[in-house]
Design goal:
The chain is of the alpha+beta class and 189 residues long. It is 17% helix and 44% strand. It has a single domain (41-187), classed as Immunoglobulin-like. The strands form two sheets. Strands 1, 4, 5, 6, 7, 8, 9 and 10 form an eight-stranded antiparallel sheet that branches. The chain has a two-stranded antiparallel ribbon with strand order 2-3. A hairpin with a 4-residue loop joins strand 2 (60-61) and strand 3 (66-67). The model has no long low-confidence stretch (mean pLDDT 88).
Amino acid sequence: MPEFNPGLIPSPSRAPVIAIAAVVLAAIGAAVFYFNPHSIAETSVTRVQIYNARSETKAIRGTTNIIGAAAHVDNDLYVIVNLKVTDKLRLPIYIDGETAVITQPDHTVVEGDIIQKNELPNLFLMFPALQPLASAPLERNKEIAPGQTAEGMLLLHFPGATEAIWTGKESATLTINLFHQPPQVVTLH
């Protein structure tokens, strides 16, 4: 009787198994790509207003000389931005903070500060004309649920800037930083 030799048994081709596995993996990859959101958040600016604050300090005259600092003028530009942030993920998102910059035609960058909610009452006391332009502020660290929208105002402060800098700007951007997600950049017009 001849000896059993497994090398003489023809082996089936692996090509159909590999082809089926490739098709299944491609279908899974296409489904993941199609059903996952392609953006984290939809951020839109609904309104932009500006307020140019001018503060003038006069010197106090004494009997023979000037007491205190010399007279000077401070210009501050306040930009009121109404913003909508819609969560496009299947996870909640949280706003961590914001930054703003103005790029002038000579490519000089002016960085702005964001006025926090607890600073607003004092600012409105100093500049009462600013209060009618304001609305409810956009809250930080507030959860935006999947598919939901958060809406509110951001008050940007550009120290030393004037209305002429805003109107002659090359560009202005607002960056919304999110916890555990890439930042969202919005152009201000």
